[in-house]
Amino acid sequence: MIDKSKLELRTSYWDDPQAKTAFIKFILDIHGLDFSEWNERGFWDPAFTPFSYFNGDRVVSSVCLYPQKAIIYGRETTLLQVSSVGTHLAFRKQGLNRELTEAGLGWAEGKHEGVFLFSDDEAIPYYEKQGLQSIEEFMHVIRPEPTPRRAGAVQLFPDDETDLRRIQSLVEDRAAVSREFFMFNPRLVMFHVLYFVRDAVFEIPDLDCLVFCRRKNGILSIYDIIGTRIPLFEELYPYLADQSDKAVEFHFSTDLLDVAPVEKKAIIGNHPMVRPGFPVQDPIFPYTSRA
């Protein structure tokens, strides 16, 4: 058993550089993900709120609560994402994550309409004990008609400072890509630009928009469309088309793209979980809203 009297519960400590550095090291140790670039490139989000146990100057257990501005069926609201959960091995099975989750949700009570998270397999029973339930997650899929390729899509590179600031400018001024279910958080989108779609950012100047997309084995995956106006798919697709395309998968709701017919395909492996009463049925969680 650990001596809990030696642990200090801290929250909202991003203005303390030493504590922030300890958190970044904790995430690297637990999840293998280095938040340093997100911080150093200027995109760290103060709204990403930690609840952490410190043992001296070391984070040993932590939970983060991330409020997300959202549009659900045309109305504006706020959702809460639980993320960056973990405990160092020597401090596990002592109830630390449970205590931190309860503290965080107590802090957030009344500030959001729904709570969600993405779990790994082994954590599902833990979250079920916290009152969350597993749900299915989907993407939209279409079978495109053969379309000649139109020149004009330009790849942008986040390592290039000019490209990065162009991406940031478009992200900050973006319109909602869906009125059914959309979450708006420019700093989290920039996190994805740096870590998950770094090689998949394309600008289409004719349409004044960005598209995050990849193609593999005849499948074009579109993760997000970012612009002050969301183009219809028939406007967009010629800039992305390839004769090998068998399907296009959309990792967001497609209600503004005017595409039909649309198939719903279950996404396997992300394990989304929600508190009862989550306001979206059969949600397509926007890819760039995942913390």
Annotated CATH architecture of the largest domain: 3-Layer(aba) Sandwich
As a percent range, the share of helical residues equals 10-25%
Number of strands: 15
In CATH, the homologous superfamily of the largest domain goes by the name Gcn5-related N-acetyltransferase (GNAT)
Question: Could you give a quick summary of the protein structure above?
Answer:
The chain is of the alpha+beta class and 291 residues long.
Comma- or semicolon-separated keywords:
15 strands, seven-stranded mixed sheet, Aminopeptidase, 31% strand, eight-stranded mixed sheet, 7 helices, single chain, alpha+beta, 22% helix, 291 residues
Describe this structure in words.
The chain is globular and about 65 Å long. It has 7 helices and 15 strands. It folds into 2 domains: 4-134 and 270-289, 3-Layer(aba) Sandwich (Aminopeptidase); 139-266, 3-Layer(aba) Sandwich (Aminopeptidase), CATH 3.40.630. The protein has 291 residues and is α+β, with helices and mostly antiparallel strands.
List the helices and strands and how they pair.
Layout: E1 7-11, H1 17-31, H2 36-40, E2 49-55, E3 58-72, E4 75-87, H3 96-108, E5 114-118, H4 124-129, E6 133-134, E7 138-142, E8 154-155, H5 161-172, E9 181-184, H6 186-195, E10 201-204, E11 209-216, E12 219-227, H7 233-236, E13 247-250, E14 263-266, E15 272-274
Parallel strand pairs: 4-5, 12-13
Antiparallel strand pairs: 1-2, 2-3, 3-4, 3-9, 5-15, 6-15, 7-13, 7-14, 8-10, 10-11, 11-12
